[in-house]
Amino acid sequence: MASIKWTIKAREFANCNCSYGCPCQFNGLPTYGDCRAVVGMQIEKGHHGKTKLDGLKTASILKWPGAIHEGRGEALIVIDKRANAAQRESLLRILSGQDTEPGATIFNVFASTLTKVHEPVFSRIDFKVDVNKRKARLVVEDLIETRGEPILNPITGKEHRARIDMVGGFEYKLAEIGRGWSKTSGPIAYELADSYGQFCNIHLSQSGIVR
Fold it and tell me: In this predicted model, what pLDDT tens digit does every residue of 23-40 receive, in sequence order?
């Protein structure tokens, strides 16, 4: 059992280097053999024990040399500079998979695959996401520039809409799929262009998805 109970309701945008479908969502291997991803999260309502997390934002830069489940991953977590000391500690514990039942959330699963975690950064996070419109923007000065857009039909130019309905997952129940562009700097630097973008509402606790 997790030592501290927590819950977060949030909006999320993730951009990885895979093709639009992202094989990881279907237990497949990554499109190009490795995995690189940028994730932004806006918490609407949340708590970790008695510490409230409402309104705070987080961002993550992630990288694996192969498929995620093969491990040897690297991560850098950015925490909203507006968070006080207790909130910073709470968010770091959640995002690092602590106070969570084994395998219950994406945070816990990813944490088990990491061999290098850089010191957290506390900074202003400019993050806006509209899940239904498949639009997002994430900026952390000197670290992250990311945007998300809808997929366009190559013939008509019209917006294409596709969703993933996940049954029994550990991150979301339903995700809108789009595309994204990212440029990261610092200890984990890379660029992504016109690759998989995921827009979703998440509702997680120490025991997994709240249904």
Answer: 999 999 999 999 999 999
Among residues 48, 46, 43, the alpha carbon closest in space to that of 58 is found at: 43
Residue 104 token pair:
């219950």
Calpha distance 177→64 (Å, rounded): 22
Partnered with residue 140 across adjacent β-strands are 144
Q: What is the pTM of this model?
A: 0.95
Tens of pLDDT, residue by residue over 70-115, are 999 999 999 999 999 999 999 999 999 999 999 999 999 999 999 9
Q: Are 122 and 189 in contact (CB under 8 A)?
A: no
- In sequence order, what are the residues at sequence separation of 6 or more whose Cβ sits closer than 8 angstroms to the Cβ of residue 199? 11, 12, 13, 129, 130, 131, 134, 135, 136, 148, 175, 176, 177, 178
